[in-house]
Amino acid sequence: MNLQAALPLTDSAFALALVLLLLAPLAIAGVALINTGLGRSRSAAQALLGNLAMMAVAAIVFAVVGAAFTGNLPDGSGGAGHTFHLAGEPWNWLGAGPILLGGLGSAPPLSQLALLFELLAVAMAVLIPWGSGADRLRLSAGIAISAALAAIVFPLLAHWVWAGGWLSQLGINFSLGVGFLDAGGAATAHVLGGICALIVVWIAGPRRGKFPKEGLATAMPGHNAVYVAFGCLLALVGWLAWNVAGAVIWLHAPLAALPVTAVNTLLSASGALAATFAVTRVRFGKPDASLCANGWLAGLVASSACAGLVTPAESIFIGLAAGVITPLLVEVLELALSIDDPSGAITVHAVGGLWGLLAAGIFAPQPGQLVAQLIGIATLLGLVLPVVYLLFKLLNRIVPFRVDQDGERIGMDLHELGGGAYPEFVIHRDDSYR
Amino acid sequence: MKYAGLLVMAAGFFLSIAAVVLFSAPAQRGAFVVCGLAVEILGLVVAVRAHMEARGESRP
């Protein structure tokens, strides 16, 4: 896509992007269902309530303070913010906007769309670590994580990538392509969420009985494959809307370029599913439903970074690669690295997103784009990950992440909510504790 | 050890930024950014190893 030839936002493009953003929450609903389905039945109500609560807290905190640091309001030009100079170039590192979304109603249409997009992206980002902490992460801890991400970490990253921050200016200041590209939130929502998932798992530790003293890790399959599969279908609709809206808002893509973005999204997910299906068929003799769902989602996540930039053939390749990586890495994380990630979020969102960002650089026609993408990836791994680790360590001292042993034994539903998700079902004794 | 790994990751990030600031030739810049990423991955490996060792000691 030739970004230099971008058209200004027309009324029809504004209307289309708004309608698409109203459909984008289906992606969040899909991820929430997948998180719930991949957890255990005795924690299902807590998981789903946690998804809602975290989204609600993230939306409020982002509206109150986070949006001010993002700096899309009031003029939407991305020029506002705090800047220092290094090597003769400005480095815009923090946005400066009004708190409580002041002036939103009178802001330019593109700024309003950008803010809505960011509000949805922060809601998606906070759900991702919640899935990884399933069955042992306390509701209050999830809410605290959500508030911290929406107030500080996400706004900083969103400013750097979307609101005229230093990553988006790499093209102007250092001739690196058109600057760091992330039209669908692969970095700001998915990689950030995946990094948070890794840190939550590090801090909260594995579920009790997951890694016995001797022998292999205990299998703790998700309790509802139907939720997971339905979540994947919902996620597809949401992702199509999300990626196309992102192409309109961040890439200023002309309307004629939007069907290709949608096709690329579907092809990436399809390629990923096909690859995961084949890999699990070869590895285990039969295709694995939950890993295939993870593969599908990894394809969608990878498409977030590059659906508006690549060709359909490249999308299939990107999806195939994501689909091969996903089941293998899920296995390595669990069996070799002792990382208990029930939803597979680290692989799906962090690694899938990083692969998409890298692929955007590999396939982009602009010279220097690959280096710009690599610098974005280096920022996520080398700056965001350590900062989030320290932040979560501090948070864990104030609001302990992990539930006590008794709570884990009886299940998060009974412990935190006083009632289960399936009151008419018999919940069996946990045989996995050794 | 986990903190050491995280420090190494941050060092890799600053190496990548230094590459952008110090070099103007695309090849040199690209090579140093890749080196920065390699350092970050090294740091991540150290942090993950530290996590594994801690888990091994606390297994029931």
Question: Structural class of the secondary elements of chain B?
Answer: mainly alpha
The CATH architecture of chain A comes to: Orthogonal Bundle
| Tally of distinct domains of chain B | 1
- Oligomeric grouping of the chains: heterodimer
What does this structure look like?
- The complex is a heterodimer of chains A (434) and B (60).
- With 434 residues, chain A is an all-alpha fold.
- Chain A has one domain: Ammonium transporter fold, CATH 1.10.3430.10.
- Chain A is 65% helix and 3% strand.
- Chain A has 15 helices and 2 strands.
- Chain A has helices at residues 11-23, 25-38, 44-70, 109-132, 139-162, 170-174, 186-204, 225-249, 258-284, 289-306, 312-336, 345-363, 369-398, 405-410, 412-417; strands at residues 82-86, 89-94.
- A two-stranded antiparallel ribbon of chain A has the order 1-2.
- In chain A, a hairpin with a 2-residue loop joins strand 1 (82-86) and strand 2 (89-94).
- By secondary structure, chain B is mainly α.
- Chain B has one domain (2-58).
- Chain B has helices at residues 2-22, 26-58.
- Chain B is elongated, with a radius of gyration of 15 Å.
- The chains are: A mainly alpha (434), B mainly alpha (60).
- Chains A and B meet through helix 13 of A and helix 1 and helix 2 of B.
